[in-house]
Design a protein that fits this description.
Blueprint lengths: L1 E6 L2 E4 L4 E9 L3 E10 L6 E6 L5 E3 L7 E6 L4 E6 L8 E10 L6 E4 L3 E6 L1
Parallel strand pairs: 2-11
Antiparallel strand pairs: 1-3, 3-8, 4-5, 4-9, 5-6, 7-8, 9-10, 9-11
């Protein structure tokens, strides 16, 4: 069994900062890419940032220079530091991790989401 659990969302004023975390647990042999998506009400789920097991990162244009993704491989955890938050960053933030349990392919596991609300 594998679980991916987010934490750290909340309410913050525009211009403020927030960090969300996501930890994978269970029967894990290795983790490949990890990342964050977000989904606002009535909109599709969009990529925010990803990070490979080697630390290479990719960001959506809308968050470049404001958000930083990082990971702690020893803790099977990925973080998203969000600075200079804007009301349009308000969304449910969902973490994923590509996990290989034993033999076989990597499978994407998703967390349940954590809400980030930015007030103007």
């Amino acid at each position: 069994q594998v679980q991916v659990v987010e934490s750290g969302g909340g309410l913050v004023q525009a211009g403020g900062s927030l960090r969300v975390s996501c930890a994978a647990s269970g029967t894990i042999f290795s983790i490949g890419a990890m990342g964050w998506y977000r989904q606002a009400p009535g909109k599709q789920r969009d990529l925010v940032a990803t990070i490979t097991s080697g630390g290479s990162t990719h960001y959506a244009d809308s968050v470049k220079g404001r958000f930083t993704i990082s990971r702690d491989n020893a803790r099977n955890t990925v973080y998203l530091q969000m600075n200079s938050l804007k009301p349009e960053d308000t969304a449910g933030y969902y973490c994923y991790a590509d996990i290989r349990s034993r033999i076989g392919p990597y499978i994407a596991y998703w967390g349940q989401g954590t809400q980030v609300t930015v007030s103007s």
